[in-house]
Design brief:
A five-stranded mixed sheet has the order 1-5-4-3-2, with helices on one face. The chain contains three helices and five strands. The chain is α+β, with helices and mostly antiparallel strands.
């Protein structure tokens, strides 16, 4: 009976530790340690990316009704931020009549990520 109580309290302590908020240092390390997130120069991206970035900076007009909606970052590839931080925009794909797979996800001004494969991978756009 005594060992069962010890295990119970040990589990309770572990649960309490897991529920503690992250420290600022661990959050910064998480943001800086973005595994698999590479940069790409804007000049190395298709011209449609530049057109979409121009529209984002000007606040529109946009070609698709879903442009500008909140991007949930459910894939957790981008740095973790509060809900509403990221917004998604369609990058036109020549020859495709739907929205296609290409997107720009925008954070704060100057923070842009490009996905050519509908959020499977991202590259930070370096201007």
């Amino acid at each position: 009976m005594l060992s069962v109580l010890r295990v119970f309290w040990l589990v309770c302590l572990l649960c309490l530790q897991a529920c503690q908020p992250e420290s600022v240092e661990s959050h910064e390390a998480l943001v800086q340690g973005q595994a698999g997130l590479h940069e790409i120069a804007l000049v190395n991206l298709p011209p449609e990316v530049r057109e979409t970035l121009r529209a984002i900076r000007q606040g529109g007009p946009f070609d698709y009704p879903r442009d500008g909606v909140v991007f949930g970052n459910f894939e957790r590839i981008l740095p973790r931020q509060p809900r509403g931080y990221y917004h998604e925009y369609t990058v036109k794909t020549p020859g495709v009549h739907s929205r296609g797979a290409r997107r720009i996800v925008a954070g704060r001004p100057g923070e842009y990520y490009y996905s050519a494969d509908h959020y499977q991978t991202f590259k930070r756009i370096r201007e």
